[in-house]
Specification:
Blueprint (H helix, E strand, L loop, with lengths): L13 E8 L13 E8 L1 E6 L2 E6 L2 E5 L5 E5 L5 E8 L1 H4 L11 H4 L8 E3 L2 H16 L7 H20 L5 E2 L8 H9 L7 H7 L4 H12 L3 H18 L4 H7 L5 H12 L14
Antiparallel strand pairs: 1-7, 2-5, 2-7, 3-4, 3-6, 5-8, 8-9
Length: 280
């Protein structure tokens, strides 16, 4: 009898972790090749998602797609505890239907908007039980691997239903001192521009602008622009745009630099995201 082609090892498609710390591990804006559920269990943190800024308190969940750049800032002297779940889209899609898109909670909003939802006490306890299940992973016991998948699907269904309640969505904020910088970058991302161009447009001294951006976000303007362009490139590639066209459409003027930067940040060559087979 021919061996069945079973679904891939769950450890390569779903990742769940619980940590407690007084500092953020990622020191710069970054992007994942998976969707992320970020649940703040204790404390307070600030998270930038593209051009938006969210201040999370215990009981908040932040949902980020694989196309949204983000960065976490720990509050000085404050300990925070968080639970995260990384889910590869290609793994989840087969469980969805035309009626129920399990990934809608990550993609059914503009980039950097409506990412944050607040859970009431009962929902917090419900989700914490999901996190406990997902973090331990399936055992070798018969049927436990399927129970694990069911828990993941139930978890995503619950998040989507809860997110659809507009009363639970928390609007993002952005420091008025850097909002004009991010707005300019968003509008001109595909163009060729310099720091001088930004400073001139927003009537701000270039050196003060760079210092202020670094102080408030912990990253440079250049790093932010680069990550925004890589995220745009990923989106174009998965939509079928050629690598050459993507290079120019994402604001990169040099093809070799684009290939090198893209691989350094994502870990893959651009062509990887254009291959029409499951990659995760």
């Amino acid at each position: 009898m021919k061996k069945a082609d079973y679904i891939k090892d769950l450890t390569t498609t779903v990742y769940c972790q619980h940590t407690r710390s007084d500092f953020a591990r990622n020191t710069d804006f970054h992007i994942h090749d998976c969707c992320e559920v970020y649940y703040l269990y204790e404390g307070t943190v600030t998270i930038y998602v593209d051009g938006s800024c969210y201040v999370l308190k215990a009981g908040d969940i932040l949902l980020m797609s694989d196309l949204e750049i983000h960065k976490i800032l720990a509050h000085s002297g404050s300990v925070f505890s968080r639970k995260i779940v990384h889910i590869y889209p290609d793994y989840v899609r087969p469980y969805g239907t035309e009626q129920t898109d399990l990934l809608a909670c990550f993609y059914n909003h503009p980039v950097g908007k409506n990412n944050l939802i607040h859970l009431d006490y009962s929902k917090q306890k419900e989700y914490e039980s999901y996190f406990d299940k997902l973090s331990t992973g399936p055992s070798d016991k018969y049927g436990d691997d399927i129970s694990y998948r069911i828990a993941l699907v139930d978890f995503l269904i619950s998040i989507n239903i809860w997110q659809q309640s507009q009363d639970n969505i928390i609007d993002p904020i952005c420091d008025e001192r850097i909002a004009p910088i991010m707005d300019y970058i968003e509008k001109h991302l595909t163009d060729s521009f310099t720091l001088d161009d930004i400073a001139k447009d927003i009537y701000m001294d270039k050196y003060y602008m760079c210092h202020m951006f670094k102080k408030l976000t912990g990253s440079t303007i250049f790093q932010y622009i680069r990550m925004k362009r890589i995220a745009l490139a990923k989106d174009l590639l998965v939509r079928g745009t050629t690598v050459t066209d993507t290079c120019h459409m994402a604001g990169f003027n040099d093809y070799s630099n684009f290939i090198r930067t893209f691989k350094k940040i994502t870990g893959y060559t651009p062509n990887y995201f254009r291959i029409p087979v499951s990659k995760k």
